[in-house]
Amino acid sequence: MDTSELYARGLRRRKKLFGEADVAGRMAAAGEFGAPLQNIINAYVYGDIWERAGLTDAMRSLVMLGMMAASNKPAEFRVHAKGALANGCTAAQVQDVLLLVAMYCGVPAAIEPTRIAAEIFGEVAGPAAKP
To answer: What is the DSSP string of 38-65?
Structure first.
């Protein structure tokens, strides 16, 4: 498969996971300077790796959440928590992933992702709703 096909396939997957508006915003965030990176993300991350058959979409989402929490990437955790919800992951599954992160990577690594997950999965009000 050529890269233009991978790119188109990846862009479709990305929009399905995160919504057209979020994808457009992320793709435009760094302007033309960031376009080569966005091409790589669409073609290889979502067009190739996310299309592999070895894991279900939900499993892949849970793995992503664990990696983003463990590597202290809260913005990316938020993005992938929304994707996990779209992929059918439950709050209990995400909670279990974050408990594993707490045990194996340290409690501080799980604190902010737990707050984000609670917000995404509707258990607490988001930052904009705080008084």
So the answer is: HHHIIIIIITTGGG-SSS-HHHHHHHHH
